[in-house]
């Protein structure tokens, strides 16, 4: 048994949320960080069969690669799977694009399958820095300090590597003048006031900024809490989406067979020339259309992905690039299973298993 907050720290070490894409919805989506966890189920998709499996094995945390909900939720559908998880007290966590860029993540796994040496590969698209971490600085009375800081932590702030609840606190003096109609928590409106305050600083993954700011406003006693959002340095070299690297020349047909064997598939989709040899391979787990141009610019002979738009496949084929498409989640599932094994080794006293019912929604008949 482990506290969920401790497991969250381990998950962030394996796939740091600070490098997830800004549009993504990663981290703890449902659940109490202070709850105890005894069983973890790891899956690509939190589908109905997987939800039933979680109930049958008694899992109280489901780690789903794809977020069970992407967009902001304004209403709670009674029959939504994630709503059932709330009622059943099952925590839901997603790492998605954080695992895509992480060492030993989905793209490194695909590169390994294709035989690209780890020393000979680089991201297909380097992390551009705009999605880096944010430092949040706010000012509050000392009586608010514990309530506000824990609200920020619960919303996703304060995680640095294997450590959670990270912050810095320092005392100071604040000044304000409340104009007509204001109702200050401390002092009076219409008068220049000075008040002892605490300065609270913590880090926030870019994808959690909105949730953390909402938690700040909800937990702060001031009518208009003051806060700063400061962009931090970009990711270190080597972090980014996809992978590309050179290999010793081998037949393109051999690459196809390596992908099928490495992902445990009987069939894949292939576009472009299959004759001749390949010396440079690019990979992008999931939907690879966004990285199709990057693959061409990187001089790839082969582009391995999950799915690709028709016209992107045509463009690659015209340039002599062979496309191998495994279907979206088929390109990710073996890597997620490998992730569950790595997670199990990190968590003592907690049973971790990969879902037996997780499957791509499409099948070839």
From TrEMBL:
In terms of Gene3D superfamilies, this protein maps to: 3.30.70.120, NIF3 (NGG1p interacting factor 3)-like (3.40.1390.30)
Keyword terms:
Metal-binding
Does the record carry Metal-binding as a key word?
A: yes
Q: Record's superkingdom?
A: Bacteria
**Entries under Pfam families matching the protein:** DUF34_NIF3
Tell me the residue numbers annotated for binding a divalent metal cation. Answer: 66, 100, 328, 332
- A single GO molecular function, which one? metal ion binding
Q: Which GO terms describe its cellular component?
A: cytoplasm
List the InterPro entries hit by this protein, alphabetically. Answer: DUF34/NIF3, DUF34/NIF3_bac, DUF34/NIF3_sf, N-reg_PII/ATP_PRibTrfase_C
**Subunit details for this protein?**
Homohexamer.
Q: Into which family does the record put it?
A: Belongs to the GTP cyclohydrolase I type 2/NIF3 family.
Q: What is this protein called?
A: GTP cyclohydrolase 1 type 2 homolog
| Organism of derivation | Labilithrix luteola
């Amino acid at each position: 048994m482990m506290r969920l907050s401790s497991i969250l720290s381990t998950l962030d070490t394996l796939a740091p949320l600070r490098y997830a894409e800004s549009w993504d919805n990663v981290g703890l989506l449902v659940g109490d960080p202070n709850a105890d966890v005894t069983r973890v189920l790891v899956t690509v998709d939190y589908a109905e069969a997987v939800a039933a499996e979680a109930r049958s094995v008694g899992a109280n945390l489901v780690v789903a690669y794809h977020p069970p909900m992407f967009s902001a939720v304004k209403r709670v559908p009674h029959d939504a799977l994630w709503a059932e998880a709330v009622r059943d007290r099952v925590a839901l966590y997603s790492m998605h694009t954080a695992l895509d860029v992480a060492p030993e993540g989905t793209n490194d796994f695909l590169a390994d399958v294709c035989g690209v040496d780890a020393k000979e590969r680089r991201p297909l698209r380097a992390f551009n820095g705009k999605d880096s971490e944010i430092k949040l600085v706010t000012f509050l009375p000392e009586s608010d300090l514990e309530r506000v800081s824990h609200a920020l932590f619960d919303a996703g702030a304060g995680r640095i590597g294997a450590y959670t609840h990270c912050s810095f606190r320092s005392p100071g003096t604040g000044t304000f003048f409340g104009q007509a109609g204001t109702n200050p928590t401390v002092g009076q409106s219409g008068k220049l006031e000075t008040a002892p305050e605490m300065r609270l600083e913590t880090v926030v993954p870019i994808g959690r900024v909105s949730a953390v700011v909402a938690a700040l406003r909800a937990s702060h006693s001031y009518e208009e809490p003051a806060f700063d959002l400061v962009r931090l340095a970009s990711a270190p070299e080597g972090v980014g989406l996809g992978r590309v690297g050179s290999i010793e020349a081998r037949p393109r047909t051999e690459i196809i067979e390596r992908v099928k064997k490495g992902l445990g598939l009987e069939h894949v989709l292939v576009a472009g020339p299959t004759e001749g040899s390949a010396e440079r391979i690019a990979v992008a787990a999931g939907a690879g259309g966004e990285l199709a141009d990057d693959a061409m610019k990187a001089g790839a002979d082969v582009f391995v992905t999950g799915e690709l738009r028709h016209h992107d496949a045509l463009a690659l084929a015209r340039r002599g690039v062979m496309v191998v498409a495994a279907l979206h989640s088929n390109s990710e599932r073996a890597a997620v299973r490998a992730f569950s094994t790595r997670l199990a080794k990190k968590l003592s006293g907690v049973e971790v298993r990969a879902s037996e019912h997780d499957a791509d929604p499409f099948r070839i008949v």
